[in-house]
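=== Structure Prediction Worksheet ===
Name of assembly: unnamed complex
Input type: mixed (protein and possibly other molecules)
Chain count: two
Listed entries:
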Amino acid sequence: MHETVQPATSLQSLTVALIGNPNTGKSTLFNSLCGGKARVGNFPGVTVEKKVGKYRFGDRQITLVDLPGTYSLSPRSADEMVSVDVLLGRQKEVTAPDAVVCIVDASNLERNLYLFSQIRDLNLPTVLVLNMWDLATSRGVQIDVEQLSERLGVPVVTTSAHRREGIERVTDAVLQAVETPGTKPVQLFPQAFYDEAQQLDEWLVANGEPKTHLFLRERMLLDIRGASEEAASQPDQTKLKAYLEEARGRLAASGHRIPAIETKLRYDWIRQQLDGVFTRSDTDQRLSTSDRIDKVLTHKVTGMIVFALIMLLIFQAIYTWSGPFMEMVEGLQNAANDLVGGMMGPGTLRSLLVDGIIAGVGSVIIFLPQIVMLFAFISILEDCGYMARAAFLMDKLMTKVGLSGKSFLPLMSSFACAIPGVMATRVIENRRDRMVTMLVAPLMSCSARLPVYILMIYTFIPASLLFGFLSLQATVLFAMYAIGALLAIPIAWLFKKTLFKGETPPFVMELPPYKWPSPKIVLDRVYDRSRAFVVRAGTLIFAVTVVVWALGYFPGDHTAQHQLAQQLETLHASPEENAEKIDELSAEFDSVSGALIRESYLGRMGKAIEPAVRPLGWDWRIGIGAVASFPAREVIISTMGTIFSLGGEVDEEDPSLKDALANATWPDGRPLFTVPVALSLMVFFALCAQCGATLMVIRRETNSWRWPIFTFAYMTGLAYIAALLTYQIGTSLMG
Amino acid sequence: MATQPDSLKRLDELKSIGQQARIIDVVGDDSISVRLMEMGLTEGEEITVLGFAPMGDPVEYSIRGYRISLRKSEANRVQIESAE
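=== Predicted Assembly ===
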């Protein structure tokens, strides 16, 4: 079938575009073809991920371009236009494809062929891949593949990508499609339409835009307010829009109403092609099993109970089960520190290695357990078909906030950690919904805030009972968790009304039949996400940690501190004998360290912002703590330990830190921390964006510095105002 | 067809599970209406109600051999007639 006709040099290297509906196993096929090696980036100016893989097939070098999953090629936004641009060779970063592979779900052929029928209009060598063949067969679907191939005029192959079945046939078929001259595309539309497309070409040429692809002109006519209009850069947009409107008017007058005509004609054509080729047995066991499962899982009562249990399980996993793994990471980090400590004495280099580099790597790896847990659950739920049901159940609730059911899981996950939460917004196809969800996700009270809450609550909030039964401390803790979630509602609404205005996006969602999740798909997905986090966000998080280390270390003279550290290390060799000496030197070391951080750039920044934090009831020491905790909120505890001269090794339950805070005073002797100050600090940390890692993940997901900067600005502003109100109102109430 | 009277039944008026209807038209030309058509809700097709989410919205339907979830506001764009 595919013996090389002639050694055509142009065929040595082939670019192939891979496209398909969502949930057709496209990524799995991509990974199977490229062996998991892919370069991942972003297309410029849009949030669309660019995934390109390379592999050898015989004497050919194949470049495979993965296009985002889509139901149609009718671009309505710059994001959707990317696929059209790549396919037409208009995308500068990708070579024009020599062939297109269209992957479809074999069990749902009719709807999936809609996209195929549009791709056919591109007039490129095309291969149709009927994926999930094993499932389709077991569901009683029968397809006459040869007959289908003959009717469609393209090679058709069957695969079960998750089992690696039929993968080689795909490239075989691509070569076959490239080598055999394509059949002339069927003229689906009435002649009047092609006449209009021809006239449009003449109009465009007359207006300075020669050589527009026929496909683009067809899209301009068919997509009312579509994105393809902007592809014609020369003509005046208003004139072009007016012309297109007239053209559509002419077509409507002759009985071809746009947009209904396109879907009607394509689906009629599909039905003709499938007649006698595609059959589904009426006694479809799987479907009825799916029906029975759905009766329970989407039921008012049982459905909600199961949903709540699944969400609880996920939350438990990322909040609690990832704990031991995170401790392991910390253990490794300590081991690395000891190793460095054993190799060199205290000094700037050691400080850079331990507090800068090892801490930086640790601050990246520490998030992996949560990311792995969340994405394992997401992949399982998506692959078995439950994810769509979860969105179905939660949609009404989330529309009240202006979002959709798909935003629920990312937001809920953010209560454990905003990083996997932000990464999980990928399940939301609509750009505006996804952006709003991403921007409010860091408001959810994550586990890193807990140490701050615990320190403040147990030190300053009395352990009394409200109304005789409610613990005051527990109430304050609950309030801290509630404040972010409650504020997220008006803020999401505000963002929807201002920054991300536009028509409500369709929620229209496919509910796939239930199936057992495939381990390969789940593992692939988890690996893919974790790798993306480490490689693309990790480097930025690492850089932030090192920069903040440098700001806290320089420009002070650390000679005395290093000498003390050296002496202490020697003394620690026999701690019993030198107990007194150790205590004495430790105290000196702590006070030297405290002085150094106060003089560092970070300390100066803290002092510089004192006038700004005074109205919150804070002094410059708390200011430094707030500035220093930019990489991560929990850093404020060790920073305050250092500033209050206790050394950096304290944790939130350290009695000496509690005492130091309780005894800290203003220069005039008034106590520094009062209940309103403690509350204002907690409220600030509940709402601020002091988490470099989250901001870097937002930067990575949005492919722009604009959004992390915006998130930081709005959250800091919000945190400041809320802390100000808390302190001022609190102080006046306490009178 | 765009001038059809609004007295026609709409898809969101189907209130019980198992009810069937035939699609006459999808009203509108914005992204929601286009998506509905692209998903196969076109003239002449039969559509069946499969179930309702806990708060009665969205609704699960079956069409062209697969299941789809539509919000009521989306189903309201679909003009239907009862199918025998």
